[in-house]
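We treat protein structure as text, and this decision shapes the records that our systems exchange. Below, we set out a record of this kind in full and without editing:

***
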Amino acid sequence: MEPVTTLTAAAIADLAFRKFIESGAGELAKKFTEGAIVRMDALRQKIWDKLRGSSPKLDEALDKAQTGDLTSVGTIAKYLDVAMEDYPDFAEDVRGLVQEIHAGKIQDNSSMVMNVSDQATGHQTRNEVTNHGGENYTGSITINKHYPAP
């Protein structure tokens, strides 16, 4: 998991508006606990309260983001980045909420199957991708057989 201190404004905006981007709480509930989803709502409200009224373009982006418009989340991220730089207390509150959301992420403990090919090399891959990043789990193994001389 990416440390909260290094999360970009784009990743934070994605978390705040993920409920709308993923078109419903059903998909979101597969990835986050109920408590984390509640914290996403709090994060979105905190961002809304801080940024609303800053500019007509931003207000339009905030409205569109709640309809699932991914482009508008990018616009919000630009303004959020500036606000977090200009208002350290706001940035600290946002990071605290993001930390709580990440603590409520449901871990995918599904198994990965490896198929070994002709040259005895196998690869396993599982991706957890969001709109602004994600995690990639990859593993490989090489099997070397040694046969003693007759």
Notes: Helices lie at 9-21, 25-29, 34-51, 56-65, 70-86, 88-103. The chain has six helices and three strands. Strands lie at 115-116, 121-130, 133-142.
